Protein: Beta-glucosidase
Organism: Pseudoclavibacter terrae
Amino acid sequence: MTHAEHLDELTLEEKASLTSGGSFWSTKAVERVGIPAVTLTDGPHGVRLQRQGGDHLGLADSVPATCFPPAVALGASWDADLARRVGVALGEEAKAEGVGVLLGPGINIKRSPLCGRNFEYFSEDPLVSGVMGSALVGGLQSQGVGSSLKHFAANNQETDRLRISADVDERPLREIYLRAFQRVVTEQQPWTVMCSYNKINGVYASENHWLLTTVLREEWGYEGLVVSDWGAVDNRVTGVAAGLDLEMPASGGRTDAELVAAVRAGDLDEQHVTTAARRALELVDKIVAGADASASYDVDEHHALAREAAGRSIVLLKNDGDLLPLDPGSDDTIAVIGEFARTPRYQGAGSSLINPTRLDDALSELTKIAGDRVRFAPGFTLDGSGDAASMRADAASTAASASVAVLFLGLPAHEESEGFDREHIDLPADQLELLAAVQAANENVVVVLSNGGIVRTSTWQHLAPSIVEGWLLGQAGGGATADVLFGVINPSGRLAETIPVRLEDSPAHLGFPGAFGHVRYGEDIFVGYRGYDARSTEVSFPFGHGLSYTSFAYDNLAVDVQDASLRIQVEVTNTGSRDGREIVQVYTGLPDSTVPRATRSLAAFTVVDVAAGSTATATIDVPRSELAYFHPVAGQWTVEGGEYRVEVGASSRDIRVSTHVSVAGDDLALTLDETSTIAEWLDDERGGPLLRSALLDGESGLSGMLADPEMLKMVGSMPLGRVAAFPGSPLDEAGLDELVQSAKR
Ligand code: BGC
């Protein structure tokens, strides 16, 4: 008998008790009928199982677990298969620790570079976020461990995160902020979805019926359980009626009693509590079925996977004069400068903090390869203490005596974290002074960055011929960095977010982080590269950018328009002398769209490995749904007919081949009535002819106006009801009614 089959035997009190936590990280048991408590724990890039006590800020100690690259890094791999393998490994570790649900991945959109938690999210683009999130969830759940897809939804900042209302129009909400969730939910049925702290258009996510029931369940067909973010419940009774199933963490029974009282008072239909309890029991059943008391995992193997993933996540931003890779066989001395080389910053602070099984640092890993050719100088301290001038002088002299200076710069841990947002995107001033001093001593500067949110490069990138974006790479990042610097790995990471010239250029800048309890997403759908492109804003490094130690040529683009997709084929030739991996990116745009559209939107991408001198043919399907926009009046996704531009390239600003294809539009079922304008009537397949025959057949002044394109431009915006109200109008109230009736579908 499954636990869910006990539902009918449970009292109202027992059902209520099943739908809130028993402790910080577990649900409640109902011993009378043998229902066990289950464990949910953070996440997302490792298993954070706290030994005793509990908190959600990563303060209490947790059991050692592999710290895989956080999402900021993994997202930059653009490699779904890799994300899936990381998901499998996370599942193995969770299972070995008796954890039923791992709280992740976080797939919120990086709306502003200032979000303090961007290190936990994949991308500014919903396709990258959705594809990577889906792969990770698929891998995790294949091990019989549930995921908690978070934070649903529009949790794009930390400022006032427990109260703020994200005020977002329906198009950006659907097309940007919900899109990745939609993909993961429909593809993977995550066992749980975690609703966010914030309000959406004035209603708490945990009480948002539209979000949790209409969209998530009725439109997307979600069957799992909705859990609150830790402490996100404001009013449990309203929440349960809206579609919240499980409140976490424990409320000490207080809100269970509120639920029971609300049912008894007739304020809450018991069915809502029963449904939530059923979902809690179904989750218990899945967890019990997936559990394996004898499960273990191979620490070394997972460390190796963490290293591979980190290597694939590193983005080579710049490599003038092919300063990289360094030659492992040469006699050249290498100055390794910067405290981050010795004391890596490899993950972000807050609830995702993992206690790693081991920790590689770049200095030791570089030394393993280059031995005593490596000379180290710390250059600065992480807490700003010490004599900066002396450290700088020491670093400069170390650089002066070496062939190349590899300079590890980055954000100190206190500058970014869960719980607060950043105030700027600059590197610390002492590090920039160090860069200038080192560069004056030796022009062969390679900068290796460690940062969870992007940092500005425009003020200093001219000083460094090579820049390696090393994000926060997890516990094996040091080895992976050495792999990339010495060419053991030919870098293939790509920016999943734009690096702007200035923070002020960010499309969300003026609307972040809001005030007075509201943050208005005024940039609409123009988030990230969509915004930079729409304004032709110069950027330092565009979305999708990343170099390789080889080069690729794109040829022979062919697009076959099929019923359900566009089938893209393109030849990618490795024109350099090293084997390499290219991330082929497909963008689409509809220049003549009748609605605001991004110049180009990422519609698909794939990874191709191409040996030096060889050509590979990439075949990529762009589902027709990727061409759609959300029509807020019709309340549906729709593909507008027209000449679509299909662009394929190596970044959003490095399009190599492009073409146009004609795509037939969907029939948009708009309801025409007296509030619809003349233009809307005329544009409608059914309404147009009806209106024409009602108006244009006569000799009225209006028919003359509508026949004249210039006049039509002027009167086209008039609602038909207003036309009917004009004295002497050829369309009276009765005629209008008849027209509206016959236009009905
Ligand atoms: C975070 C979640 C996390 C939870 C439990 C919250 O503060 O927003 O991402 O899973 O705490 O630690």
Summary: The pocket of beta-D-glucopyranose is lined by residues 42-43, 56, 103, 150-151, 229-230, 351 (CB under 6 Å). The radius of gyration is 28 Å. The chain has four domains: 3-290, 306-538, 552-663, 678-744.
